[in-house]
Amino acid sequence: MSRIKAAFNDPEGTRHGGLPTYWWQGAPTGYATRRQLRNQGLRPGGQPVAAQILWSGVGGTRTAYLYRTDLARPKRTATPAQLAALGKALRARRTCPACGEVRPYYIRRSLGCCQTCHDTPPAAPGRPALSTPHTREATAMPTAAELLTRALGCADRGWRVFPLRPDDKRPAVRDWEARATCDPDRIRRCWTAGPYGVGIACGPSDLVVIDLDTAKPDQEPPSEWSTPGVCGGADVFALLCERADQPFPGDTYTVTTGRGGTHLYFTHPADGPDLRNTAGTLGWLIDTRAHGGYVVAAGSTAAGRPYRLLHDARPRPLPGWLAAALRPQPLRPAGTPVVVELPADRRGAYLRAAIDRTLTTLTGAPHGERNHTLFMAAQTLGQLVAGGALAEDAVTSVLTDAATRIGLEPREIGRTIRSGLAYGARRPRTVAA
Known about the structure:
The structure is a single chain. By secondary structure, this protein is an alpha+beta fold. The chain has 4 domains: about 5-75, no CATH class; about 80-120, no CATH class; about 145-325, Prim-pol fold (2-Layer Sandwich), CATH 3.30.2250; about 345-425, no CATH class. Helices cover about 30% and strands about 20% of the residues. The protein has helices spanning about 5-10, 35-40, 80-95, 115-120, 145-155, 175-180, 185-190, 235-245, 320-325, 345-365, 370-385, 390-405, 410-425, and strands spanning about 15, 20-25, 30, 40-45, 50-55, 60-70, 75, 160-165, 195-200, 205-210, 255, 260-265, 280-285, 285-290, 295, 300, 305, 310, 315. Strands 10, 11, 12, 13, 14, 18 and 19 form a 7-stranded mixed beta sheet that branches. A 5-stranded mixed beta sheet has the order 1-2-5-6-3. Strands 8-9-15 form a 3-stranded antiparallel beta sheet. It is globular and about 70 Å long. About 35% of the residues are buried. InterPro entries: DNA_primase/pol_bifunc_N, QRL_CxxC_CxxC. It comes from Krasilnikovia cinnamomea. This is Bifunctional DNA primase/polymerase-like protein.
């Protein structure tokens, strides 16, 4: 028996990460994993994790949490309303969003439609509509030479490009915004090395791109946009133009996305502050990409779905009413920051240093990386929240205050903090007194 197995088979258990830890089949009686409880018709019932076990698996050492069986509670049975909701969700997964037929199998999300619709060719070629279902058309993957031509074409328009991972939307290089270029020689050296997708850095290219997405099959519009005929971002944008008594700005450079959405390209206003990325600021399923953001160029693919040029025209200047709606809120003036009450002992000093270090990293994040830095900050402090060292409401308040000061949108802040705290809760971290 190896030394590590001998150590973890100690009946008393070895403390690892603040929890008693045992090797597989070495835990004393009275403990069980979630799966073992479920097989016995039980659930943890809100009790804290009591210990953990280790075992060797594919990829290295694996872990699982243990709970006390004497504190476990019987499993809850689903109510009729819950069963009805589950049945409705399962039926929705078998309903094709393209033809509306209920199939005996689940609709593959990668296709976005049933196999019959996927295998049926379009009736006739024509200009695609702005709102299209999530269909996946059979298409040949572009070659490196074709993507090079697309990248050079974007550079000729003055748009700074950078490589994306092949058949993906993610950048293939770090610091993509600073490394985006219009230099034909650099572009040729890059795209002759492989079939990289073409990304356009909106900020350096003086572009503002409005992204009109399509709704998922089971997605319903919120009450504000619950109007007959509204089923996607393009419909919401048309309604937004109507409410503002403005024409639909469709006579501009337009690209259809791989998921059936639409990208409307506009030039950034010459005066006024730099516009940033937004998510839902204009309306349901409407995002924008500007400074700190990028879009996939026409001719590239993502997950086998092509981005196609719909209307080849010079990008129009961003209409003034849209620029006013997208103008970022002024940064909050420096004032009294949110203070987290902590004990005046060694443990409190450790927590104070952890909070200050996290806030320093967040407030110093460069433009374009602030949202990701906020997520990492919430994840870091979320581990301490899950371990009982910090209160969730206090962490949320201090992160919200710091994120607001650096100019993030309120809706974006709340969603990112909740996601980071939930992710951090997967690995609780305790602090010794």
